[in-house]
Amino acid sequence: MGAPVTLHGLHTVDPRVDAPQARPPLALLPSPLPARVVTPSPMLDVSRATESLHGLGFERIHTIPGSSYKDCSTVIVTPTRGLIHHRVVAAWQSLIAPMNQKRAFLFVAGDEVGHAYNNFLQQVLAHPELSTWKYVLTLEDDNIPPPDAHIRLLEAIERGPFDAVGGVYFTKGDVNMPQCYGDPELFRQSGVMDFRPRDVAAALQRGQICECNGIAMGCTLWRMDLFRQVPPPWFVTVADWFPEQGGAAAMTQDLYFCKKAREAGKRFAVDFRVKVGHIDPGTGIVY
């Protein structure tokens, strides 16, 4: 046999795992950045830190009137004989509703105003849903309420508390009387009920709520229970000759009901924050 062949360069064992390994060349590092001086922020006073922890909602809640948390469900009714002036419609469309409350807007057409209100109320009180609502808001088709009328009247009716509160507006024509009639204090002291227009200059200037014997219906909030506690007929227009009583008698449907309700111990007021226009549809003049 020939001499054995020697294999050069081959290993019969694995290389050592702990053998030194070649290292990659070091990367060039950028020059070190200059040290930044950090000024510590001043400490915030604890009393200041806790001022707004609750958020704006908790701070502003103190300005929200308490009436907005109660049941403010309202049926709005408007008796009408036909066309309604566009300025009146625009005012109705701008009327702010109390948040998250039920409100319905209904019309009664083609009837004398007293009959219209009586028929409407009888149907509402017989309705399974509407009869459970708390208020009735009467808006007449020649009155222009401000956007916040409903909200302000809800505040005022609970402030008294009153059984009905209206906005202030004036009669049409050359002589303009405020629709705020009679002094309830005189009635309490003497038993004599008058419906003379009150001197409202100071109350109007200060935006006050003025208690009275009689109110109009152009923009007025009534408690629904009032029409359960005072029997019908509620609204009657009187214009007739009564010989046995000494002559003629005339009374609008609103003052007829106010007299009947005041004799039953009910209370009325006018909110002078709620300034209502009284438009003449023929001329467009607002009183």
User: Which CATH class?
Assistant: Alpha Beta
The assembly state of the depicted protein chains is single chain
Q: What is the share of helical residues?
A: 10-25%
CATH fold topology: Spore Coat Polysaccharide Biosynthesis Protein SpsA, Chain A
Helix/strand order: HHEHEHEEHEEHHEEEHEEHEE
Specify Rg, calculated over alpha carbons: 39 Å
Strand content range? 15-25%
The number of distinct structural domains comes to 1
Cα end-to-end separation: 139 Å
Average residue-wise pLDDT: 81
Which SSEs are present, and which pair or pack?
Blueprint: H1 46-49, H2 56-60, E1 74-80, H3 86-93, E2 103-109, H4 113-126, E3 135-139, E4 143-144, H5 149-159, E5 164-168, E6 180-181, H6 184-190, H7 201-206, E7 209-212, E8 214-215, E9 219-223, H8 226-229, E10 238-242, E11 247-251, H9 253-263, E12 268-275, E13 277-278
Parallel strand pairs: 1-2, 1-3, 5-12
Antiparallel strand pairs: 3-9, 4-13, 5-9, 6-8, 7-12, 10-11
